[in-house]
Fold Fe-s-cluster oxidoreductase.
Amino acid sequence: MSKRGKNTASAVSIFNIDDLSTWQKYRKGLCDTCHATCCTLPVEVTVSDLVRMSLVDEFEAEGDLKAIAKRLQKARIIDNFNHKTAIFTLARMANDDCLYLDSKTRRCTIYHQRPETCRNHPQIGPKANHCPYRPRE
Ligand code: SF4
């Protein structure tokens, strides 16, 4: 079960994604056994990310961002758009998984096109260099 806010018992600690004190210090190889819990967090993206993800073309990206947001909200690809910061937030599945996360393999299906936020995690994030690590079941 991967619902946000639910506690998950582990040998070491009680994990709760919303409690940063339960996040683990990132180390190489940690992702290999992880449930990809980081891919259940809200992902903020720019229009450049949307171009790389092939959701917006270069021409459209130079136009009205609100119109892009409206189109992508209707398609349920983004949840919201902050016009002051020009940041879009990607939509998630009912269980909080990112739309681009494979539910079985727990791998990103657009890895080479993934947003900067994902590329920079966990160096940049709610708790720098720490992960919401939870082992796969
Ligand atoms: S785009 Fe890929 S790496 Fe980023 S949160 Fe979604 S599944 Fe994870």
